[in-house]
Amino acid sequence: MSIINIKLLDKFIAKYHLGGSTNGVKWVVHDGVLQTATISEDKYVVGMVAINIDGFPDGEYGVFDTKLLQQILGSLQDDVVIEVEKHIVNNVPIALNFRNASGASKKKGKAFSVRFSLASLDIISTSPKLKQLPEFDVVLELDSDIISHFCNTKWASGMYNEITIESTPKLAKLYLGKSQKNSNSTTMQWEWDADTNGLHTRLTALDPLSIRSDYFWKILLANKDCSQGLISISSSGLIKIEFKPYDRFIQLNYYLTKLI
Fold first, then answer.
1. Could you tell me which CATH number the domain at 138-257 has?
2. Which pTM was predicted?
3. Out of 70, 164, 188, 189, which residue is the most buried by the measure of CB atoms under 10 Å away?
4. Coil, strand or helix: which one is 221?
């Protein structure tokens, strides 16, 4: 019998589910580390999330419907007993059974136990393995103020389908909308100065490069509790967004490709 914290598990789910952008994933648990690599249905964004979580039995679990799992977990108290139900013949996990750790103190409206059926790993889309990453030409530091500001701005506007990043050796800009070189519109932007924006900031000449704003926003929103992160941009068109490990999270990496 193992006891886990539902709030911690729900945080893990939110950071890879990205508001419904990904759904079917494989969970891998080994020595107290729960991790997953996921890819959106349109194959535009890849995410890798890992967390230290006590009590989760080692194994590989096919989660076909993450949205349903979130709803199920929402009916439970903070601490639950988790048991893995396995096939009687081949010993493969077929379900996760959750029940409140303290049945006697069950809260009003909270379920006592739930069962979540697992899927065969054969039907789960696998995320590509990123073995050889290109060199990242520009690196921009994120802090809690930038993350919060961008999340609130995108939420309020809803009119921008893309964000654009451009850089010189001295100054980098990230702004909502298309390249300002071909537009007279005025929009909100963030700037990084090579001389004043932190030890990890690295700038070089980079032509305007646009990515989908909805995924960028969902990634930042899912990690709005993070205090530090990096945006790394390659001239080849790959963008990496990573957040500094904190609390129990040990990996929070996301990869996007530029818009053509």
1. 3.10.150.10
2. 0.90
3. 164
4. helix
